[in-house]
Amino acid sequence: MKKLISAILTLAMVMTMPLTVFAVGQGESATAEVKGTYTGKETKVVYSVDISWTAMDFTYNDAYEGEWDTATHTYKNATPANWEGTGTITITNHSNAAIKATPAYAAAAGYADASMGFDTAALNIASAATNNAAETGTITVTPAGKLPAGTTAAVIGTITVTIE
Q1: Is 35 domain-assigned?
Q2: Alpha carbons 119 and 51: distance in angstroms, whole number
């Protein structure tokens, strides 16, 4: 008897459960909403960049008119002004994002006639995640302009590398 009552109650409960049924005739259609939920973690960008510099020591050689030749009334053995040396800035990207390194030069007070040139206005370096290895680039620094007479081992300016 208990089994029969349990079976009847179970059948009654199943019959009272909500159930949506659509009847569609020929040439008609039915729709149902499809829902989705996204779960995930946002990957954080981690920046890690090494910047190394070769010595930024340069020598300016002023122009020399040469020796005066009284017989020809001209100068002989003249030499133009020039700079000795170049510098290198090496940028190594260990980040999981690409970077852009932009060099800039600011002359120190009293040395506005000297400048530094760069072989690139901005250096783009790929993410270390691209090849699973650090990516490296270099910027060559070349002095230009001139220094005042008597300058010896003076700080003539500052190079700044901005990472974006």
Answers
A1: no
A2: 17
